[in-house]
Each structure stands twice: as structure tokens, then as C-alpha cells.
Amino acid sequence: MVPLSVLDLVPVGAGSTARAALATSTALVRLAEELGFLRYWVAEHHAMPGIASSAPAVLVAHLAAATERIRVGSGGVMLPNHQPLVVAEQFGTLDALHPGRIDLGIGRAPGTDQRTARALRRGSAALGADEFPEQLAELVSYFRGDGPVRAIPAEGQAPAVWLLGSSGYSAQVAGLLGLPFAFAHHFSSENTLPALELYRRTFRPSDVLDEPYALIAAAVLCAPTDAEARRLALPSAWQFLQLRQGRPGPVPTPETAAAYAYTAEERRFVDDRLAGQVIGSPETVRAGVTELVERTGVDELMVVTSTHGGADRLRSYRLLADAVRPAAPRPLATPTSATAGAA
Question: In angstroms, rounded to a whole number, what is the distance separating the alpha carbons of residues 340 and 343?
């Protein structure tokens, strides 16, 4: 088995609060460290009632302070939403506070609607794909110390830089720069194998990596029985259906999701959504995770689990770790000036 990690969207259940969701995340990162998970990432989403992870740098600081060994980072910071200098200062500070434990995962999509994106960027134009390499180069130059201005305390710090993606674009950029690559299998499973193949084919050795290193983020939910796991997984699929229909909201209860009057088209959507996940008892999940890792050939599996109740999420990760037993990681170097300059 490969190393296991956690991607936390900080889901907010219906009838609950962001405070409760964040408290669950604090308990989960401590549990993940105890169980031997390698890293713990938080996502960046805005204007979504069911997700409380809108400020990755703030949350990373809290989670890193609540633990001792596990790597903590962003999965990821959406670069179009921020000035590179600000990101460099934030993660330079984090790396100075928690040396050797901070990951800076970077994405090129805003991850939100255009109105919210404009509010984040104070009305500036959205960052296009052609501008992303330039913005990334500026970001890493601040850590190297030769950016447009001096970024203190980013200068001289070295958070591990990852590129995130759900298509081939970031896969190719990560390969050309010799950076580790994280693919969003949990919402773009049809693109997983082509993106990984492109990353490996275009990979160039760097001071960070001698050979490709890829992880995928996959939706996994483990419960004592297959039936219980599917009952707990349905609310997240229903929530995603509502999001696609322009009605974002919190994670509903299993009872609400089960009682919903699905149209035939909605039922197909939900069934397809669940089919792309690893859901079931420990035995079922062990088989599903093993098949997924073997099929993709990834170096690491990052698990995202969304349930209405926090206790069900914590139990799922415990059962997963018992069933699969995380492996030791292959060491990664930290970014250096030579690699950063390649951007």
C-alpha cells in the first residue's frame, strides 16, 4: 500500500455550524497524525454554505499548531484569487513557524463563481491559463529571494510546492517543472489516467524530484457494513447534485437525502457520483482502494470523506487505516532555487 493522506473540505452539516465543522477538523488532524497519515490538506472554497474552508492559510496555521509531526498544507490555494506576494508571505510565515511540515498546493482555477472571484481580486480580471506560469514563477521567486520585492519572512523559507489539477494543463506544467502533482480524482475521475500519463511523460528531473511523484485525491467512506456506508455517502452525492443545479447548501442528513424525490436523471447523476467513489465495509474499501492504487500507479492516496456528522467522518478514517494500514512515504526534497527558477 502507498502512504495515505487527508483532504479536508471542512463539510458543514445541515443544522450544524462552521464552528462545529472546524472543531471536527481539529479532532481529525490529530487522529490522522495518530493513525500514521502522511499529510493533511485543506481546500479553498468560497461562498459555499456547506464548506468552511475558505481561508487555507489561517486553517493550516491552526492545524499545524494542534499537531507535531504530520505535514499540513493547502489542497490548494487557488492562485487566481490572490496576489503571489500575499501567498508567499503567508506560507513563508507558516514554514518558519513549522519548518519541514508545510505544503503549498497551488491550483489555477478560481474555485468559485465569477462574482466572488471579482470580490477576492478587488475587481481585477480573472487569471487566465496563459498567465498561470508567470504568476507561479513570481510566487516561488519570493522564497528564493529574487522576487519583484523582498518578501519577509518568505525569503529563505521552503514550503513544499505542489501543483494541483483536474485536467491535463497542470499535469503538464508540473511535469515540465519537475514538481509533485496532485490530481482531483474525486470530482474528475474520467480525466485521472490521461492526466497522470501526461504528467509522467512530460516529467523533467529537478532539484525537488528525480522521478515523478503523483497523488490522487479520492472520495472514500468506510463504515461497518456496505449498506451503512452507502447510507452515509448519499448525502454528499445529494449535496453535489444540488450544487450542480445552482443550489449549494450544507450536507443534508441521511434521512433527507434518502427521502428526496429524485427524477430519473437526478438518480442517474447520484448513482454515477457514488460509483466513482470507494464506499463500503472495511473489506470492500480495502479491495476498492487497492484496485484504485494499482490501476493509477500513484505514489500516494489522499482521502476525502464527507458526511453529515463529524463522528461518522472520524470513524471512517479509523476503519480505513485499520483496513489498509498506511505505508511509509518515499522522501521528497524541498524546493531549491534551481527548481524555483525553472518556473
Answer: 6
Gap between the Cα atoms of 23 and 25, Å rounded: 5
What single-letter amino acid sits at 283?
E
pLDDT digits 0-9 by tens, 295-341: 999 999 999 999 999 999 999 999 999 999 887 776 654 433 333 33
Q: Which residues pair with 78 in a beta bridge?
A: 107
Tens digit of pLDDT for each residue in 64-86? 999 999 999 999 899 988 999 99
Residue 54: all three cell numbers together: 475558505
| Whole-structure pTM value | 0.93
**Of 194, 130, 13, the residue nearest 181 (C-alpha):** 194
In three-state secondary structure terms, 297 is coil
Q: Could you tell me which of 336, 322, 327 has the C-alpha nearest to residue 31?
A: 322
Q: How many residues does the chain have?
A: 343
Looking at residue 42, which CATH number applies to its domain? 3.20.20.30
Cα–Cα distance, 272 to 244 (Å, whole number) = 14
For residue 181, what are the β-bridge partners?
163, 214
Q: Which of 210, 83, 181 is nearest to 138 (CA)?
A: 83
Strands 278-280 and 214-222 come out as parallel
Q: How far apart are CA 276 and CA 299, in angstroms?
A: 20
DSSP string, 233-278: HHHHHHHHHHHHTT---PBPPHHHHHHS---HHHHHHHHHHHHTSE
- Total domains in the chain come to 1
Other C-beta atoms closer than 10 Å to the C-beta of 243 total 14
Write out the residue range of the structural domain in which residue 130 sits.
4-342
All cell numbers assigned to 28: 481529525
Task: Name 31's Cβ contacts closer than 8 Å, sequence gap at least 6.
Answer: 314, 317, 318
β-sheet bridge partners, residue 161: 104
